[in-house]
Amino acid sequence: MTISKFTDKLFSRAALRGIVAIGIFMVFWEVGARSEEWFGHRFPFIGLVPPPTDVFVSWTGLIADPSYWQSWYMSFLRVFGGFMAAMIVGIPLGLLMAVNRTFYGMAFPSFEVLRPIPPLAWVPASIIFWPTQELSIAFVTFLGAFYTIVINVLGGAKSINKQFLQAAQSMGASQWDIFRRIVLPATLPSIVVGSAVGMGITWEVVVAAEMISGGGSSGGGAGGGLGFFIWSSYVGGSYEQIIVGMISIGIAGYISSELLRQLGGLLTPWLKTR
Amino acid sequence: MPDPANNSEILRALKSAMPFQMVPDNLIQEIAGICTQQSYDSGQKIYDLGDVADDVFIVVSGSVQHVLSTQTDAGKHEKTMRGGDVFGWAAVLEGQSTRLAVTVSIEPTQVLRINGKGLIQVFKSEPAVGDVVMTRFATLINREFYVPRSIADQVPSFKQALGASSLQGSEVTTMALTVYRISTWIKSPRPYLMLIGFAFFLGFWMLSVEVWQLPRFVDMPGPTEVFTEWFSEDPYYGLSVYTPEYYKHIGISLRRIAFAFFLATGLGVPLGLFLGWSKTFREFIFPLFEVLRPIPVLAWVPLAIIIFSGSETPVVFLTFLASFFATTLNTMLGVESIDESYSRAAYCLGASRWQTFVHVVIPGAMPYIFTGLQISIGVAWFSLVAGEMVSGQYGLGYVINTAYMMIEYPKIIIGMITLGVVGYTTSAMVRMMGDYLMQWRVRELALGDN
């Protein structure tokens, strides 16, 4: 009891300090943004940003707007589509490369040659290749998560202690048993880490892909996703909405990462330290 | 010359002695040629203090009592030598002509005697090996006989003594090592599998696009088209390795990366160090940092365009932002990874807060900082491409995007490959710099502390 009280107190002090810092930041932002209005002289850089109160007002207006939520939905759909595809292709590929040396020797160098090309450099090529814009955005999103997942799965599987495999084999385990009882549990933590990192990259990519390709097949502000929401707000000159879009993407990305972390914790209960 | 049976016994004895373990076989043979075997009865004196130091001894069987003179300031004077132990090392020390110890056999003992001058002569032909053996002698003298370093440092160094010619010798060995590595690589299946893999990849690309002309693939530029354009002196779309424009794009991208990367390192590393070091500072600043971090760097694009006028600054700012978050976070984690007992030990020994920061916190966080820099250069390229595609003029991302707009498709692939190559090179440079600067750590892990 006393310990939990103590941690509560500690936590509250840290939380208080965090709130104070964010509050100061907000005040600075507000004052800076309104400097022209209030002091008649615009502060450099910050003076061009819309003030937080305006952003908040603009946001409350948007909450009732279904097209704003449609953007959320579209971005989430693309992220999860690309991410799922990366998991479905990447995990078996990584495991196969870890298990089969010949396949590793053939596939890994090509993989390493393609990996340094940033996913966004693929945007034009994938627009040319895929029949719909939706598919080309999904493909670039897929690429973003794919490399990280494969590398992590491969690293996890390669770090398995050989003696475990030998012990299992000498006691008569079948290939499936070895895979199910040793390889899979040993690689799960790195799969979890890889997908958490991959999820972060996926959000980065989806935003940029939506901006560059101009929204997606449904066109217009309604079906474009959050990246397009930001871009169209910029083009339309409503700068408050840019910030709303940025914060929305931050929240969306945070929610997905947190969901993934919780899921990862459930899948690897033996890693919990407490 | 000793007879063959005897010779193999000498070889075995030499190989069992610590300083000679690394010596290649041909040299061991040569050393064996200048060895003599000798037996002593129980209680017989082998040499006395002040005798002429001519030979180095290796115990083959039996045991020898070794008592160092008090003048050596050794930490421990008495030592019993058994099979494989080496003594009489005064014979190889520079500026030492007489014995520093008394040695007596305490049971019937067989020893190998190697003439010290002869040994040094042998090593002059192979200075790289000689230096390894002498370093091992120095370690032996210092560690096993507890003799101060000042004496151990008298072992000769061959590279210094021989000057330029010895350098050539060491070069030959590194080249031999490279040749050896290449030859084992060629003999392994790896290069052939790699070639098969590349052939599959290029073959699939070529067949699907150029030969079979599959439905969706036919719109893509094929490998022949791309490579003829890339290496053409008179490129159809105006971009190849012979056009100065190509290098201008690379140069501008590199300049943006360099500027953003160094700025991010210069700001991110100190900020990360302070965040990790001071709890108060972290409690104030880190929540703010965490609130801003989930926003993807690319979502900043329009805001960056609004805040910074022109097309150059926004791109650099985006690149900087991505690098900055990676560097700061890793540096902070690096400081947190340091075992707290190090700082406590430093405080106990009277170090000030500043001294602890400089001598404990910064070196301790270094490995994480360099990991952070590697991530940072990767994400820098990632966001540079996005920035250049959306705004900006020149640069490789711009090449890709305009090539798409102008329907000059081979240029897209040229831009992508170039990005891959340049990006990989810069990452490799950062990694190599990190490895080079982290050598002290590897050395410390390998050798332990003296």
Write the layout of secondary structure elements.
The complex is a heterodimer of chains A (274) and B (450).
Chain A: H1 2-33, H2 35-39, H3 52-63, H4 66-99, H5 101-114, H6 123-129, H7 133-158, H8 162-170, H9 175-213, H10 225-236, H11 239-267
Chain B: H1 4-16, H2 25-33, E1 35-40, E2 45-47, E3 55-61, E4 64-68, E5 78-81, E6 86-87, E7 101-105, E8 109-115, H3 116-124, H4 127-143, H5 149-152, H6 158-162, H7 164-187, H8 190-211, H9 223-230, H10 244-277, H11 279-292, H12 301-307, H13 312-337, H14 340-348, H15 353-390, H16 396-405, H17 409-437, H18 439-447
Antiparallel strand pairs in B: 1-8, 2-7, 3-6, 3-8, 4-5, 4-7
Overview of the molecule:
The complex is a heterodimer of chains A (274) and B (450). Chain A is mostly helical and 274 residues long. Chain A folds into 2 domains: 1-49, no CATH class; 51-269, MetI-like (MetI-like fold). Helix content of chain A is 80%, strand content 0%. Chain A has 11 helices and no strands. Chain A has helices at 2-33, 35-39, 52-63, 66-99, 101-114, 123-129, 133-158, 162-170, 175-213, 225-236, 239-267. In chain A, helix 4 (66-99) packs across helix 5 (101-114). The radius of gyration of chain A is 24 Å and the shape is globular. In chain B, the strands form 2 sheets. Chain B has a 4-stranded antiparallel sheet with strand order 1-8-3-6. Chain B has a 4-stranded antiparallel sheet with strand order 2-7-4-5, with no helix packed on it. Chain B has helices spanning 4-16, 25-33, 116-124, 127-143, 149-152, 158-162, 164-187, 190-211, 223-230, 244-277, 279-292, 301-307, 312-337, 340-348, 353-390, 396-405, 409-437, 439-447; strands spanning 35-40, 45-47, 55-61, 64-68, 78-81, 86-87, 101-105, 109-115. With 450 residues, chain B is an alpha+beta fold. The model of chain B is unreliable at 161-171 (pLDDT under 50). Chains A and B meet through helix 1, helix 5, helix 6, helix 9 and helix 10 of A and helix 8, helix 11, helix 12, helix 15 and helix 16 of B.
